[in-house]
Amino acid sequence: MKTKVMYLLEYPIDLPGGAQMSTESLCEGLGNTEFEPVVVCPGLLKKKKEAYPFRIIEYPMGEGRIRNLGMRLWAFFKIIGKEKPQVVHIQMPESLITYGLLRGMGCFRNSRLIFTDRGLFYGYRSHSMALMKAALRRADLMLTTTQFNKSLWEKGSRIRPVRVVANTISGAFLEYEPAKRNGEGFVLGFAGRVCEEKNWPLAVRLVQMVREAGVECQVEIVMSVFESGDMDVVNETVGGMKRALGEENVRSHLDYTQAQMADFYYNVDVFVMTSQFESFGKAAVEAMSRKCAVISTDVGGLSEVIGKAENLYQADHPEKAVAYIRKVWEDREKRKEEQEYFYRRYKEEYSQERCLADHLKIYRQLV
Predict the structure, then answer these.
(1) Per-residue pLDDT tens for 144-202?
(2) 99: burial class by Cβ within 10 Å (0-12, 13-18, 19+)?
(3) How many structural domains comprise the chain?
(4) Do 142 and 115 form a contact (C-beta atoms < 8 A)?
(5) Torsion sign across C-alpha atoms 47, 58, 143, 315
(6) How far apart are CA 312 and CA 320, in angstroms?
C-alpha cells in the first residue's frame, strides 16, 4: 500500500498560481513512487478532475472570508478523517490556519505536517502571522523556497526546523528544443501580471534608456490581466515601449498559457525583471530554462535565484541594467556565455527533477 500525501489548497488547482502549479508538478512526479498524492481543493473552475493523473477531492466554498473558513474547517475535518493521510503538505496560508485550528482541537495528530512558505516572512498581516505561528508549532517541518526567507523566519520566529527546497516551474518547460531558439536580431523580454509589485513603469523607462544608449533591439512582452482597469496598464506599458522603439519593434501578448510561455522565451535574448517585490521569481527560472540571459532588480528572493551580482540592479539606478544590456548586445560571445550560465543554473538548482528529489527525500525521512 502506498503512503498517502495530502495537499490542502484554498483555491482550485486549475486557477493559475504558484502554489497550484507546484502542487500539480509534485503530484505528477509522485505517480511512479511509493507515495499516493491526493489534492483537496475547492471546486475546479474549468477542468474536470478526471483530466488529472492524480486524485482530486473537491469541496464547496461560499462568499466571505468567515463563511469560507467555516466551510473549509468542516470540509477538511470530513475529508482528512476519511482519507487518513500519513503526510499533510500545505503551501497556502489560509489552509495552514484552517488545519492548525483542527490540530489545536486534537484532530489528526497521527499525520505528519509540512508547510511550504512560498511568500516572504514579512509579507503577512500581523493577525495572519499569529495564527500561522500557532499552527506551525504543531508542524514537523517548515520549508521555504529560498535561503533568504529561511533566514527571515529563523530571525523572526521560533519555528524550527526550517529547510530550503527551491521552487520549480511547470512541466511545459521540461524539454529544451534548440531548433526553436530564435537567432534573429536582439530581443528583450518582459512578462508578468498586471500588479503594483511588477513595476511596469520601470520596464517602460528601461526600454527608453536602452534606446537612448544606442542599442538596436526589439521587445517581446506578455502581460496577464485579472481585474477591471488592468488593460489601462497594458496599453500604457506597451504604448510607452512602442513610442520608444517604434510600433514594428514591440510584440505584445496577453494571458499566455504555460505551454505558450515555454515557447515565448525562445524568442528572447535577455529577460528583464523590474519587480519591487518577489518571494522567489518563477519567471526568471522559466527564462533560464530557455537559455535567456537574465537581468533583475535586487529584491527579495530574486537575488538568490539570479546568483550573480553583475546581473542585479537597483530600481532607482537602472543605468546598471542598461549597461549590461548594451554589453551583451555588442558582444555576442558574452551573450552566449551568459545564456549558458543561466541554463546550467536552472538545470542544477531549479529543475523539476531536483525539486521532486528533494521532496521525496523529505517525505521518506518523515514516514
Answers:
(1) 999 999 999 999 999 999 999 998 888 889 899 999 987 789 999 999 989 888 999 99
(2) buried
(3) 2
(4) yes
(5) positive
(6) 8
pLDDT tens per residue across span 14-70: 887 788 988 998 999 998 899 999 999 999 988 899 999 999 999 999 888 889 999
Give residue 111's pLDDT: 96
Q: Which residue has the cell 476519511?
A: 82
Q: 196 with 134, same domain?
A: no
One domain, residues 122 and 237: no
C-alpha grid cell, residue 231: 488593460
The pLDDT tens digits of the residues spanning 7-21 come to: 999 999 988 778 898
Domain match, 248 and 297 both: yes
CA 310 to CA 133: how far, in whole Å? 37
Q: Are residues 185 and 325 in the same domain?
A: yes
Residue 288 lies in domain:
172-350
Task: Identify the residue with better confidence: 255 or 293.
Answer: 293
CATH number for the domain that contains residue 326? 3.40.50.2000
User: What is the C-alpha separation between 86 and 98, in angstroms, rounded?
Assistant: 18
What is the torsional sign of CA 141, 145, 147, 149?
negative
Residue with cell 529544451: 176
